[in-house]
Amino acid sequence: MDRKSPNRTLKAVALSTCVISGFATASLAEDVVKTRQASMDQIRMGAATLVPMIKGDAEFDAQVADLALRMTYAGAMAFEGKFPEGSTSRGANPAIWENKADFDAKVLDFIADAEAAVALKPMDLEALKAAYQPLLKDCAACHKAYRIKN
Ligand code: HEC
Fold it and tell me: What is the C-alpha to C-alpha distance for residues 93 and 68, in angstroms, rounded to an integer?
């Protein structure tokens, strides 16, 4: 097995995590919209690593999967509480503020599912599917109700 390539992937993912989290922290005070969008971008990067593995387009790698799940969990936690009244954006459906309790519950479910996925520590593809598929359902359900895709 070529031992170099998974390590390179891991480094690239780890580096991107630092860059994105740094950006999220810097904009926290100034711009809640940018922060939540950066959190979602971090979550998207997790998906960009995990979905090809699940589809069989990328080789399963337990270490990389673990890192991608942790990134997703961190992104989900950073996303929470970033929708104060009036913080509208092109991507956020105004329905969020009309159904705030339901939206907040969906965010908390997503965090709980991400935490559970990390705790599962999937060591093979079947375990990764079981861990990640609930999260993919969460993306779809929340986006359908609350995201405007531009
Ligand atoms: C609880 C609700 C919720 C869940 C769960 C959720 N999202 Fe989102 N997502 C949103 C909302 C709301 C926006 C729009 C935010 C804005 O533009 O202000 C968004 C925006 C995005 C964006 C665009 C970010 C940008 O730069 O503008 C991406 C990419 C994204 N989500 C990916 C995902 C993926 C992948 C998942 C699942 C692994 C996921 N989301 C789960 C609510 C959710």
Answer: 27
Dist. CA 3 → ligand 1 center (Å): 34
Ligand 1: which residue has its CA nearest to atom 2? 142
Q: How far is the CA of 128 from the centre of ligand 1 (A)?
A: 21
14 within a domain of the structure (yes/no)? yes
- Structure pTM? 0.85
Q: Which mean pLDDT values do the consecutive 10-residue runs of the chain (150 residues) have?
A: 54 55 49 94 98 97 98 97 93 97 98 98 98 98 96
Whether 50 lines ligand 1, by a CB cut-off of 6 Å, is: no
The CATH number for 50's domain is 1.20.120.10
* Paired tokens of 90: 């092109």
